[in-house]
Design a protein that fits this description.
Shape: globular
Helix content: 10-25%
Order of helices and strands: EEEEHEEEEEEEEH
Strand content: 35-45%
Number of domains: 1
Radius of gyration: 17 Å
């Protein structure tokens, strides 16, 4: 997630980035196994100063709800650039991602709106294909091609996230209630 413009309290976060890699248990979907994922690793832009690092760690708790027994936090360079229509993202030495938007039926890429359990940063996105996604950290060695790739721009504030988190807590409470 690349922050064009934003702040956490009085801490400016303009131009910084944060990334997350997660893995669900074999044979389980991400939704089925939420809270018991095998891997939850967050990467914070190493360019952040100590105040910004602390803010980004806290922001990650909201953007990427902790969903495994433990969460690893690492500070690495995170960059993004465009080559033609290809998005190129690098997360330290642990991940390289390339992808592009796909053509829709009319003009532009298909847009997904209001997907299940979407948080305020994922309420809508454009659909694409990941040309390549690698991840080599935490005992993993992923090398995927032609997988899901999403791009979106959003504006969000803490009031929206508080409302979302309260609604999700209520949904989880109902889902875990004995019938």
């Amino acid at each position: 997630m690349f922050i064009k413009s934003g702040r956490y309290g009085s801490v400016p976060l303009d131009g910084l980035a944060v990334a997350q890699f997660v893995k669900s248990p074999d044979g389980k979907s991400m939704l089925e196994s939420f809270g018991s994922w095998d891997l939850d690793s967050v990467y914070i832009d190493e360019r952040a100063n100590p105040q910004q690092r602390a803010a980004l760690v806290d922001v990650a708790k909201h953007l990427f709800a902790p969903s495994a027994k433990s969460r690893e936090i690492r500070y690495v360079p995170i960059s993004r650039r465009m080559e033609g229509k290809e998005f190129l993202v690098s997360v330290g030495k642990v991940s390289d991602i390339s992808g592009h938007l796909i053509d829709g039926g009319f003009t532009g890429a298909p847009k997904i709106v209001n997907p299940p359990l979407a948080d305020p940063t994922h309420r809508s996105f454009q659909q694409g294909v990941a040309t390549r996604l690698t991840f080599t950290d935490m005992g993993q060695n992923w090398d995927f091609k032609n997988t899901n790739f999403m791009v979106n721009d959003f504006t969000v504030d803490n009031a929206e996230y508080e409302k979302y988190e309260a609604a999700m807590a209520e949904k989880m409470k109902k889902a875990n209630k004995p019938h």
